[in-house]
Amino acid sequence: MDSQRPGGAPRPPRGGGADAGDASFILTVLIALVAIAALILVPASLSASNSSFSILHQVPEGHVGVYWRGGALLKTITDPGFHVKMPLITQFEPIQVTLQTDQVKDIPCGTKGGVMIHFEKIEVVNRLRKDYVYETLLNYGVQYDKTWIYDKIHHEINQFCSAQSLQQVYIDKFDQIDERMKEALQGDCTQYAPGIEILSVRVTKPTIPQSIRRNFEQMEEEHTKVLIAVEKQKVAEKEAETQKKIALADAEKNSQVSKIRMEQMLTEKTSAMKQEEIDNHMYLAREKSLADADYYKVIKEAEANKLKLTPEFLELKFIQAIANNSKIFFGDKVPNMILDQRLLGNFLNNVGNRQMADI
């Protein structure tokens, strides 16, 4: 039997009301989650103009996050990563604080002579210091580089060109433009916007009228020919100088060889002279010895003769000499002459004196 409630009213099905309530609650939660995801994810993927609708936003690497509330710049600066802000009330903008290159294109300028030229592109490598982001944006806005780089480059280039001739801008002082632009930009930034650092400026060759460029090309060709002629002259001078050095080296070498030969010959002559002098000394010494020996011999013979020439010896020699005479004299006077002792003594004395005088 079916159970019935008192009063005859039918009993509602068991558990039916609870299941319907649970399904409605789950559906409500899902709709709420989808709405939150739409508010968070969809605006975050849109452009910066729609970033005011997002709650979660991302600051890319190399940038910092800057915020405005009701048009007023906030001092809050966020680092790279995910951050949360109030939608519709707070606006967000990423500001680059790493190196960036701004290209300023098509810059017209007039030279001192009135010739219009164009710089097709000038690149400025710069950086905004992180600790000066708030001050720079407060004074010059997000487009600070337009004021201090783009507009400033136009002004400085025109200032430079108006004070120089075409020859100076295009050739003579073109290599100085980069440094001058860098110094001019950095000088003003240091004074008025110290957060901006100008690291380098690269200026391309300006575009000049075709007729003038052809004249410059011809002038450059002539200049090149002059340089070639000068270099040829330098080469010829170097070759002549080299030949001169070679000739001087040969002459010096020959001079040194001749000097060595002369010294060698002089040494040989000196040696020969010394040898001859020694030989002469030896000869003189030998001859002196021989003369001394002869003198000594003669002295000794004289002394011997002196001892030997006695009257008796001389008488003996006289008698021997007469005895050897083959002539015979006859007469009564001859014996007296021969045997006259006085005459013989005088004769012997005279002979002895003469011999002593000779000695």
Describe, in short, the structure shown:
With 359 residues, the chain is of the alpha+beta class. The chain is 61% helix and 17% strand.
Question: Judging from the principal axes of the Cα atoms, what is the shape?
Answer: rod-shaped
Mean pLDDT: 80
Alpha-beta content class = alpha+beta
Instruction: State the helical fraction.
Output: 55-70%
Order of H and E elements: HEEEEEEEHHHHEHHHH
Poorly predicted parts? 1-18, 41-50
Distance linking N and C termini: 212 Å
Largest sheet: 3 strands, antiparallel
Number of strands: 8
Count of separate DSSP helical elements: 9
Strand order of the largest sheet: 3-2-5
- Estimated radius of gyration: 71 Å
| Strand percent estimate | 15-25%
Structure characterization notes:
One of its GO terms (molecular function) is ubiquitin protein ligase binding. Its main location: endoplasmic reticulum. The chain crosses the membrane at residues 23-46. The chain is built from nine helices and eight strands. Helix 3 packs across helix 5 and helix 7 (311-323) packs across helix 9. With 359 residues, it is an alpha+beta fold. The longest helix has 99 residues, at 210-308. It has helices at residues 16-44, 133-140, 144-162, 166-172, 174-192, 210-308, 311-323, 334-339, 341-358, and strands spanning 56-59, 63-69, 72-78, 81-84, 90-96, 100-110, 116-128, 196-203. Mean pLDDT is 80; it is low at 1-18 and 41-50. A hairpin with a 5-residue loop joins strand 6 and strand 7. The strands form three sheets. It has a three-stranded antiparallel beta sheet, with helices on one face. Strands 6-7-8 form a three-stranded antiparallel beta sheet, with helices on one face. A two-stranded antiparallel sheet has the order 1-4.
